[in-house]
Design goal:
Strand order of the largest sheet: 1-4-5-2-3
Order of helices and strands: HHHHEEEEEHHH
Number of strands: 5
Strand content: 5-15%
Distance between the termini: 21 Å
Low-confidence stretches: 1-8, 277-282
Number of helices: 7
Length: 282
């Protein structure tokens, strides 16, 4: 049974308002992470960084920009303006932009896997009770995604010896506990990134099917279940990051979750429009 017209109109109005609030917050979120990248880049860049190193240092900002353009494309193809995209040329252009965004996001996946490999193969430093032998200004101590420059004033209080490790290809050092923490965080970064890529793939398939008039069936049901599992995984990862005090990362995940739920709302509205005219296809 379809909801009464009045309720449906109210729900659609509420959805539109919430959607634009979420999208505005995503823009603000981007600038928060850009500022964070600007702060952390000096700790991870070498004296003469290559373009690849610069991209790795600003990987989060590049990633978020690509995600924002991606969700904007989905909004154009599934939201109220979708009717103005009549013609294969405009839709093909949108899909080309989405493909470019996915390529940029794959760079993030590559960078995350590279960080994971670096953390998995650290270089053991000579046993010492503290880091006071590393106060030449080129070393930073890593703990919980945060970097602290090793200096004479703080070297005795950074980490616990005698086991210290240098992260490969970066002038970064951490202790055994920090290394274990960095390894777990690196794994969650890779898992989170792959989960979002699968959500994008599932959303792309759902959008294309509904544009062809397919409003239901086994494949769409499977896609819906798979997305639920992936969204749950992302929420669990976000909660873990929040438990580590990484409130910005927790906030970012929840915000993007709401962003894609807005796209899900657009798809539900499309299905409601298709149902009277078409039968579900398998």
């Amino acid at each position: 049974m379809r909801p009464p017209f009045g309720f449906a109109t109210y729900a659609n109005r509420w959805h539109r308002r919430l959607k634009w609030v979420v999208y505005a917050l995503l823009v603000v979120d981007f600038f928060f992470f850009l500022y964070q990248d600007i702060e952390s880049a000096p700790h991870t860049l070498s004296a003469d960084p290559s373009l690849l190193q610069w991209m790795r240092a600003y990987v989060t900002s590049i990633d978020l920009l690509a995600w924002f353009v991606l969700i904007a494309c989905f909004e154009l193809e599934t939201g109220p303006l979708a009717g103005r995209l009549a013609g294969n040329g405009r839709r093909s252009a949108l899909r080309a932009v989405r493909l470019a965004c996915v390529v940029a996001i794959l760079h993030t996946t590559y960078a995350d896997i590279g960080i994971l490999r670096d953390v998995q193969a650290p270089r053991a430093l000579p046993a010492a009770v503290d880091l006071c032998a590393y106060t030449d200004g080129s070393w930073s101590f890593l703990r919980n995604r945060g970097y602290t420059t090793v200096a004479a004033e703080n070297c005795a209080n950074l980490g616990r010896g005698p086991g210290f490790f240098a992260i490969h290809a970066e002038p970064v050092v951490t202790d055994r506990a920090g290394l274990t923490e960095a390894l777990i965080l690196a794994w969650t970064d890779v898992a989170e990134n792959l989960a979002w890529l699968l959500i994008v793939l599932a959303t792309e398939i759902a959008v294309r099917m509904q544009l062809r008039g397919i409003s239901g069936g086994t494949l769409l049901t499977f896609i819906g279940c798979a997305k639920t599992v992936l969204y749950t995984l992302i929420v669990l990862i976000a909660c873990y990051w929040g438990s580590k005090g990484q409130i910005l990362y927790f906030w970012d995940e929840i915000l993007w979750l709401f962003g894609f739920l807005m796209i899900e709302g657009n798809l539900r509205a499309q299905r409601a429009h298709l149902l009277p005219a078409t039968r579900p296809n398998a």
